[in-house]
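A.,

Following up on our hallway conversation. Structure tokens first:
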């Protein structure tokens, strides 16, 4: 399990590095509170849960509905963020790799 946390941390760091290299802050843009890597990591966690339930739970159950609703909400929020960044209304934070969330070694 610790290895999975390290791997997730590595992926988030790489995504954040890519986002930092392509970052174009716009004057007046509101900085998003999460890094792009954090957003994508959260979507992956929610998707993993939804697909796990699809394989192990009642397809018509409340847990299934809640998990897939949550995944749909995350997808909509991601799309909104992408549009807001593209339009210059939001910017992504520049996250130093060494300060990222502490996934390494914890």
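Then the amino acids I'd put at each of the 106 positions:
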């Amino acid at each position: 399990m610790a290895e999975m946390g390290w791997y997730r941390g590595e992926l988030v760091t790489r995504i954040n590095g890519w986002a930092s290299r392509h970052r174009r802050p716009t004057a007046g843009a509101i900085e998003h509170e999460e890094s792009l890597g954090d957003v994508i990591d959260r979507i992956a966690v929610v998707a993993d849960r939804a697909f796990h339930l699809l394989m192990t739970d009642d397809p018509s159950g409340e847990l299934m509905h809640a998990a897939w609703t949550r995944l749909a909400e995350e997808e909509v929020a991601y799309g909104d963020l992408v549009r807001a960044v593209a339009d210059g209304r939001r910017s992504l934070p520049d996250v130093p790799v060494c300060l990222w969330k502490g996934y390494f070694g914890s």
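Residues 99-106 have pLDDT under 50 and may be disordered. Curious whether your intuition agrees with the design.

B.
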